[in-house]
Amino acid sequence: MRRLKREGLPYLPRELSDQIIEAMIECHAHDPAYQWAVLRHITKPHRKQIEQHFRVHWLPKLIISVHHDDNGYADYRAFSVDRETGLVAKFKLRDLSAEWNTRVYVFRWEQSIAMSDFDRPNIHVRLGVGAMNDGLANSWIISDTFLPGLRWGDYGRTIWFEWKKLFDILFGEEIIMRKAQKIMVRYRFYIKLPTFSIL
Length: 199
Known about the structure:
By secondary structure, the protein is an alpha+beta fold. 35% of the residues lie in helices and 20% in strands. It has a domain of 128 residues. It has five helices and seven strands, in the order H-H-H-E-E-E-H-E-E-E-E-H. The chain has a seven-stranded antiparallel sheet. The longest helix has 25 residues.
């Protein structure tokens, strides 16, 4: 956080401003979207702190689901992060539906990943299942966004992607949706709805 150096303008001491930011981050511990999309951009030290927290806490709670036309699916969970750059996450196959649990369907893992696009997304991202809002049902973030830098191997049993860019997209969409909801709630009272009489 930059200090105001102009004469006559007050500024907070670094220690106090850090305490305020730390308190804000703690207050939004249940809201990863706000932490990542808003609070992460306040200062560089807190950016590193939040990114490290997400790498340790939220990345393991990220589920990548690949779907196929026959309603089969495969779920991937975090396995490791590239040590050199820290940008690329490796996910491994963890759960497989009965329709895919046979060698006959092994080629479809790779096929479904490769065929996923904007018009027909085969990949869905879920974050915080059972871990957000004190574990209440349906209290997670879900999206059919693409995975930046996606690569795969071992017939689709392993995938790699840039996890920070994925969080940028995922949480950016979430914040936009929240703002849109607030606008709709704010202006719905000014819209005169038609009235109907019972025949």
